[in-house]
Amino acid sequence: MPTTSVHTDPDTLSMTLVAEFPVPVERLWAAFADPRQLERFWGPPAFPATFTSFDLRPGGRADYRMTSPQGERFHAVWQVTEVDEHHRIVFRDLFTDPEGAVDESLPAGETVLSFEPLDDGSRVTVVSSFTSAADLDAMLEMGMLEGYQQAFGQLDRVLTDLRAWALGQGTVTEVVDDTHVRITRAFEAPRHLLWRAHTEPDLVRRWLLGPDGWEMTVYENDLTPGGTFRQAWAPTGDTEGEPFGFEGENLVVEPERRMVSTERMTGAPFPPNTNDLQFDEVDGVTLMTLLVTYPDRDQRDAILATGMTEGMEASYQRLEREVLSAA
Fold this sequence. Notes:
It comes from Curtobacterium aurantiacum. This is SRPBCC domain-containing protein. This protein is an alpha+beta fold. It contains ten helices and 16 strands. β7 and β8 form a beta hairpin. α7 crosses α8.
């Protein structure tokens, strides 16, 4: 975790976060000055940001939204007041309506981002200040402190060279907590091709098969929020096993970037989990991140025990052979 400290000060009506990274200050600055990089961490993992405008100059504005796994959108804007390249960014961070008009009924604050070089890297200090104790308390109740910690916990991945960090590692499964598992896999392919491979039936049927000896017998997917999907597999030849399938509802569909859906095994008595699938591309390498939310720890452990990671890796290797290499 790169965050070295985070605290609130009721006397100054502020919250301060300090984070250090083993990169030059120019590289750290670039992560905040490029909206495509900023989108990868400005927001907790389950509430990623999408910047729809970005003018990082005094008097400029950067409009963005955060989208929950249920499809709820929360809109905000940076009203930029000061920019000192590689050193400092100051902006008012305000809630807006979907058209960008400031919502005066919600808390308003000013944020100062300060950047400084260190002997072995660089540091960013984030100070968010409010005009009243009520606004500070409201933001803390909304989870601002935890949200900042989670958001900046993703920044190290943005700063690391994706090709060196992720290619060749295969499928990596990380248990986040009792109900969350994060799965990552990198591909030397553009994001749009990975999206097609996950959404076009003819391509999906070529690789989403798990271990050898299985075939996909059903693939139906209404790629709209509220649309349903259904998938089914059956063994072939001498392969042992019973046919099975999954079904669910799409909650968020942002083409080439994010797809969130519920998923349950067809006919199973337990409640569904939620799959939040995101794609990030840097210099021709796409990192695919799947954040799975389970109803409880027992269901999490039961699914992990099925050999899920190994089955996914077998499918991803087939994806590289059968789809990506042929594109």
